[in-house]
TrEMBL record:
Superkingdom of this protein's organism: Eukaryota
Region ranges (Disordered): 15-42, 106-129
InterPro entries: PDCD5-like, PDCD5-like_sf
This protein's name: Programmed cell death protein 5
Matching SUPFAM superfamilies: Double-stranded DNA-binding domain
Gene3D superfamilies in UniProt: PDCD5-like (1.10.8.140)
Organism: Vanessa tameamea (Kamehameha butterfly)
Annotated family: Belongs to the PDCD5 family.
Annotated PANTHER family: PROGRAMMED CELL DEATH PROTEIN 5
Pfam families: dsDNA_bind
Compositionally biased intervals (Basic and acidic residues): 31-42
Amino acid sequence: MADPELDKIRQQRLAQLQAQHGGGDPNQAKAQEERMQAMEEAKHSILAQALSQDARARLNIIKLSKPEKAAMVENMICRMAQMGQVNTKISEKELIQLLESLNQQMPRSNSTVKFDRRRAALDSDDDDL
């Protein structure tokens, strides 16, 4: 049950890793860039086949706000499609369920904003009045 697209992506990834550890030949860098573009095109074609239009639009909106999360979801959907877990196109509701499950698996980053109000009282802009 070998998928030709999966084999192609694996070969490209192997060549990419070999090129990274190999050397700095300009021809290799150009070839690596071409392989990366081919991988992106393959990923986009898989996503176009696996996602409905609404789900694709939602994923693009997520890509604008959180590119790393969108990349993770894209890779997850590509793997699911290559393993044959996607029988029909993924609808927007199913994509939302995937995103919710991904959010539960990922730890939240506790970013806080701290205001130091004492500095605002010492602002030199008020001296001009």
